[in-house]
Amino acid sequence: MENNQLSSLPELIGNLTLLEELTLKNNKLTTVPESLGNLTSLEELWLNNNQLTTLPESIVNLKSLKFLNLEKNQLTNLPGSMWKFKSLERLELRDNPWKGEWKGIEEYTISTVFEFCRQRAPIIIYISHFREEENKYRIHNLKEILIEQDEILKIFNRDEQKIPKSQMLLFIATNNSISNEQCLQELKLALSHGLAIIPIKGSDIGWEKLNQINLGPEFNLSHQLGLEFDGEHLEQFCNELYEHIKKYKREVNLFEPEQRKIDELWRNFKFFGEKFVESEDFKDIIRENFEQFKKLYEDLRHENLSLFEYIFRTGQLFKSKSN
Fold first, then answer.
1. Closest CA to 119 of 225, 297, 270, 247
2. By CB count within 10 A, which of 134, 212, 273, 304 is most buried?
3. What is the third-level CATH fold of 123-257?
């Protein structure tokens, strides 16, 4: 159906479930219907040289797709859910007016594009709180402000059946909530389904007390994970919280629980590593072992050492000092 004057497609196109190739280039399409996602046998999709401004989220249902051409449209970003594409081998993105963070996306490899989309995919959030403190911590207002943000799809609370469908749990941590059976049950459920847990500390509790909650080795409510609630400047607090969530999403895969565990370990390692690098102990070790560090680096540069050996021997220098 290329080289026509098509400005739209019928929803019934989704009935062509055995279709393997669909060529729609050189038309005047501004959108394609959600039913396009029903074409699960599709291997090639040509949408280049149109006027598309958005793509339907259902496009990720094209499980057999190997080639997708989106060149020369009016796209400024891609659906975050495109990270789910596993079969795609070729993706053409040139000559679109990409905006903001998406500028230059046409130069990325497919795997980098998918990771970029995954980091920006909207998530579902569950807010866990002590029921009697719902007004005190302005849960309704919190939800109203956050749900307007681009990378948040839905927000739930007071219904633990929604937890398995979520990717993140915000825990309003207070003296009441850390001892409340319902809140603890929600935390356990979040852990069992691999959700990221972000603490929001109330004014009546300290960070050290949150670390006393014993829900297993994977449970952690340390201060670097969360924020302190500020009800007096709620809009500003929500902006800070959203930026915190976005930063977390960039570093941790919230959609695949096993990968999330690995990402969180690396995130914690980087945090404590940065703190150590800023310490006097680190500077002392560098001063006392400068020549050895220099020699190890030279050996690495001249390929006399593998990267693994370099990391191991460098670690041994730090270990000998700590011992």
1. 247
2. 134
3. Rossmann fold (3.40.50)
